[in-house]
Structure formats: C-alpha cells, structure tokens
C-alpha cells in the first residue's frame, strides 16, 4: 500500500496480560512522542489505548476515583500461559474489552499504518493479542512494533508478535524514514533526533481524559546498574533545557487542566546544579498549582538540603528513592549509587524540607538471584527506622544486563526460552516455588 499524501497513522497502547497490574502514572510516552513528530510533519494521527480506564463503554468510566492519575485497570480473567499453570494466582487481561477495541478500530477513518508499543518483556501476550485483532480488522495495513520488548527481545518479537516490522531502540531516529518506506509519504524533516528541545509536544491531547501528564526532561542514565537495561534502551544521555520543559508543563496545565505531572527520567537529579535546580526554579516561578511525582527512582546522593527545599516548594507530592537494598557492604556487584550515610542524610534533608513519611518511598528490590527473604525484611526495617516508606519492587530479570547470567543460573525456569518466565510476580529467580506466605509477609512488613 502506498499513500504519497499525508497518511493516517494509528498509535496503539496494547493490553497487559499479567497476574497483577495497576496504573501508577503510566502512559506510553515514547509512542506519543513519535505521534507528536508525525503530526507536526503533517500526518493525521489517531490513538487507541487498550488500557483506557475512562472508556465510555466501561460502567466505571465516569467514576471520580482517579487520584493523581493513579487507579486500577479493568480486568478479565484469562488462561495462564503455558509453563505457569503451577502459580496459584489469577491471570488476567488488563484493559478494555476486546469487542470495544474492535468497534473503536472499525469506527476510524481508513488507516495507512499502525504503530504499537511494548513495555515489560513478559507482557508480550497482550501485545500479540492486540496485533492479531488489528490485523483481523484492518487486514493489509502494515503493523510496526517498537518499545522495550521489541528492543530487548527482538528475535522473540519477530517470531511471536505478529508485527510486520520491528523498531529496536529509540524510534525517533528512524520514524520518518520508516513511514516513508511503508507508505510512500516523505516529509522534509524539521526536527533533530539528537536535540530534545526540537521535539514537538507528544500527542497527550489524544487521551480520552488527561488526568496526569508525563514529563521527560532527559533520556538515558550515567549509571550502569547490574539489574537495569537503561543503557541498552538509551545508549546516550540527552537533556532538554529547563525552559522547554516548563513551557510544555504550562501548556498542559493551562490548556488541558493537568494538575499532576509524573517525571519519567532515569536520572532527573544527576548534575542537579545544571539541570534539576534551574528546572525547579522555573517551575516555582511559573506559579502553577500542581503536584509532581517521581515513579522512576531518584538518585539519592544528589539530594542536598537546598535541593530538598526546592523540591518541596516546586510541588513534589510523591518521591521514590532508588535505594534497592540496605546491604551496603555487599551491593558493589549491583550498583555504586549510594552509601548508608548518603541515604540517611538525604532522608533528613527531605524531612527537614517538610515531606511526610508517606510521601517519600524507598524502592527495595525483592527476588534477586540468591537473595533471601530475611535480607529484604532487614532492608524494610532499616527504611522504616529512617522514617520513610519501604516500597517493594519485585526484581525482573532483563536480557542484556550484567545480572542476566546470574538470573538465568538462579531461576527455576528456563528464562532464555521464553520472556514469560521473567515475570516478577512469580519471583522467577527464587529456587523455591512461588509463596503467598512470603509475599504477604513482605507486604505487611512494608506498611507504615
């Protein structure tokens, strides 16, 4: 199919198939950024969200339950994937009903190209279901898959997803040339893939209800933690200017009523004097009544007393610290991000600035290769004694990370055979079978 005129491009955020899922300020920002680039160059862009919590067909769509952009997804019980039948948990499709999705697909004007994103590698069954329904409804329209799963498990995605084409790595580098190849439409580029300030705004206005706006002030991370794939997904560190970031925030706040903003950066506070501090000063000067959230972890050692006070004045409401473990004497093989003294000092600064214990959470990894539950319990106790909230983050084995080999060796599953076995809900790197008793005990201990 060729369309030398500006094409109609459909963006799709696929379903999640999992044992558990919850909307923590989640939006497919990478996909919507590509949509912004395409629309800015003249393409018609539409968006369908299989996770839409506000779909008009849902009885709960008019509920005011959304708090700060968080809330439960609609879910439907489905069969567990092969190999996970022994897990004593319910497996579900999270998101809208498939017949609503097909109806929305068929109501669109003719589509020339479909772009589907992907996130967690073990969520690929939801991606596959989404693409299959697209193909059955739109027939010969090409479907392109990008995102985290497509990048980290590209061979598996080519064999399994049903997509006609894969984009691995940052999509902005090839989006226009790829669309040209697949549709025959060749606009003259007027943005710089390496200059984030040249990017147009993402197409967040296509959301049915903009209960929060994601904000990305930088790409990449200078650290190479053993459990993290950030460097594989974004090999180069790039930053936007503080003025560009605040201009976008003011736009979403003024024109679309967004009050909650979630920073998606992997390294928001790194080199704070030249980035975070001038950014926060400009946010304060803009005088917006907003709440700021950091679902991605902040680097603890960067939090000084002046920065903590700036964060409080700027409107930070939810802070997550990248602590991971309090076994500080044994963490050298994982990362070198923080010492015990730096953690306790950062907590004191945040408390002095006015943050409550329920606003500041420290992520603690559970389910690491060779890790015992007692180690996690001790970390929980240390965090609670410091006066902040322990937040359990279940470890996901990720291909191409330094810890991957240890994860493969420790797992009771064949992690290399199928990404489905890397699901963090099943504690795949523990030699014992999944235990509700251990999971419940950790959850109860982590409560304030």
Architecture overview:
This protein is α/β, with parallel strands linked by helices and 448 residues long. It has two domains: 8-183, 3-Layer(aba) Sandwich (Rossmann fold), CATH 3.40.50.280; 212-446, TIM Barrel, CATH 3.20.20.70. It contains 14 helices and 18 strands. It has helices at 29-40, 98-107, 124-138, 148-152, 154-160, 175-183, 230-233, 242-256, 276-286, 305-314, 340-353, 373-386, 404-410, 436-446, and strands at 8-13, 16-18, 23-24, 44-49, 70-71, 75-77, 92-94, 113-116, 143-145, 165-166, 213-215, 218-219, 238-239, 260-263, 291-293, 316-324, 360-366, 389-394. The protein has a six-stranded parallel β-sheet. Strands 4-1-8-9-10 form a five-stranded parallel β-sheet, with helices on both faces. The protein has a three-stranded antiparallel β-sheet with strand order 2-7-6. Helix 9 links the parallel strand 14 (260-263) and strand 15. The N and C termini lie far apart (58 Å). The model has no long low-confidence stretch (mean pLDDT 93).
Oligomer: single chain
Supply the CATH superfamily name of the largest domain.
Aldolase class I
Measured by DSSP, the beta-strand proportion falls in: 15-25%
Low-confidence stretches: none
Q: Give helix % range.
A: 25-40%
Number of helices, where a helix is a run of at least 4 consecutive DSSP H or I residues: 14
Provide the CATH top-level class of the largest domain.
Answer: Alpha Beta
Q: Note the overall shape.
A: globular
**Order of strands side by side in the largest beta sheet?**
11-14-15-16-17-18
Radius of gyration: 22 Å
Q: N-to-C terminal Cα separation, in Å?
A: 58 Å
Give the name of the CATH architecture of the largest domain: Alpha-Beta Barrel
- The domain count comes to 2
What is the strand tally? 18
- Tell me about the biggest sheet? 6 strands, parallel
State the CATH topology of the largest domain.
TIM Barrel
> How confident overall, as mean pLDDT?
93
Indicate the structural class. Answer: alpha/beta
